[in-house]
Every structure is written in C-alpha cells, then in structure tokens.
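Changelog-adjacent note: as of this version, every example in the card shows the full chain rather than a window. The one below runs 307 residues end to end.
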Amino acid sequence: MKYNDTDIIVDEVLLQRIEEKKKRLDLLRPLSKDALKALLADIRLRHTYNSDAIEGNTLTLQETKLVLEEGVTIGGKPLKDHIEARNDADAFDLMVKLVSGKKQISQETIQQIHAVVTWGILDRPGQYRTGNVRIAGSTVTPPNYTKIIGLMDDYIHTIRTLHLHPVKQVAIIHYELVRIHPFFDGNGRVARLLSNLFLMQEGYPPIIVKKTDRKIYYHTLKKADYRDLSEFPQFIARAVHEGLQYYLSSFIEEERLIPLRELANNTSYSQEYLSLRARQGKFDAVKIEDVWYSSKRALKEYVQSLK
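Full-length structure tokens:
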C-alpha cells in the first residue's frame, strides 16, 4: 500500500514536543552504559507484561517479574502464560541485539522475532501461515495465505523506501504487519517488537503499548482497516512521547517524572486543573498506569506560556 505524509495525521503540537525531547536526548549521548542497561531492563519487563496482557495473558506485572528474574512458576496460572512471558522477554533481547548489529528490517528478521515469540507455543515458529484465518470481532478478513510472500515483499520495500517522519513511519510499520497478518498467531507481539526495532534504529527509545490502553489500541487499528488513519498514528505518537519523557526522566533531574498530585503542591494550580490541561494536550504530561506525570521543566514552560 502507498502512503503520503498527508495520509497520516499526528497533532502538530505533540509532534513538536517529540522533536524537542528527541533533540534533548541526543544532546545527552553517549548515554551512561550502566544507566541505560538498568533502564532497558525496566522497559523489557513492562513491555513483556503489557504486550502479553493485551493478548490475554493473566500474569500480573509482579508475577511477570518473578517469572523472568527468579524463574518462579506461579501457582494457578497456565503454563502457556509463563512460556509467553519468557519468550517475549527473549524476543525483546533479540530486538536490542538486532539494533546493536544494525540489522535492517527484513523478512528474515521478522521471522526470527516471531520464532522466539512463539517458541514452544506454535508447531512452526517463525513460519508464515499456510492457511486462511479470521480475526474474532473483526469484519475485515486478512489476506489469503497464498499472497503472504508477495505482500511481505511489498511490505519490506515500503519500509525501505517510505520517507516520512519516523513517528508516522512506525505507525505504518506496525499497522501494515497487523493488516497482512502473516502468521497464524503472534502478529501483534511481533508488530510491537518490530516497531521498537525501527524506533531504536532511528535513535528513539522503545515504546510500550499498555494493557490499560487495549480498547483504544484495537479501536484505532480497526479504524485504520477502513483507511481512516486519523487516530492510530496519534496513538503511537503518544507512546513515543511517553517513551522519550521516560528516558529523559532517568537522566535529567529537571525532567524527572513527578505525579501531578505532588507537582501541584508547589503551584497555585490544582491536580484536577493540571490533569484537565494534560488531557486537552495543553500541558506536557504523560499517563503511566492510570496516573498522570509531568516534570518541573514542563510545568515551568506551561506557566511561562500563560504569561
């Protein structure tokens, strides 16, 4: 499929914030190896938990941590959930390794990621589907399996020749893989990892599609199925913005994320007011696990903008 820049809608204010944060992050490079290792370990855990939970995995965040770090088996939880968690964490490590090795996105790398994600779950991990499928709750049927190779050739060509802002391009990379649905299972997990592979290659932090945003995530993907790209790129852009802020918060004290209820204590504004302005996009803030956060820098810039 062909896309033009004007087809993909992202709020200009949000895009500007992303670009400003990206510039600030680039000025910090090279990042401390120890700090970066700890940061990626945290993101690896949260990405694994959220990506699996979106697909119905029942492990909690703390249980996922125990499975990955202690090798614990959680009583009463399906074996499949444990395998999925370990697989997704291993696939995250593979994705980071591919970034370090400067590997281009290709059919081979996509199949490599899928093989790790579905190891011990599917009979043929890493192999394209050899039959047709239907997606529960969707009126759109994935392409016939006989077209997969050709569609994936076009997909890789599109990735390598599409010249868009990285935030817009990653939305297409994510959506198109889900649309083609090249595998029997694991397409969503692979799409989320592949999106991070591209973003990290472009110098952006990895993003996390959160369990709490599951309904919005699927809703925006469904609209994209009908060529309405007014919401999914915006959804991805918010995740990129949050990822950048999370990185900056780890390296710069003024950028440290603070809950709005705490940040409001040092201002004449209430938490409710700041939350409202954040939801309206007027105040630079991010929502993590249902809690709004911002930074002293963002608050200072917002107060200055009102003068």
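Structural remarks: The first strand starts at residue 258 and ends at 259.
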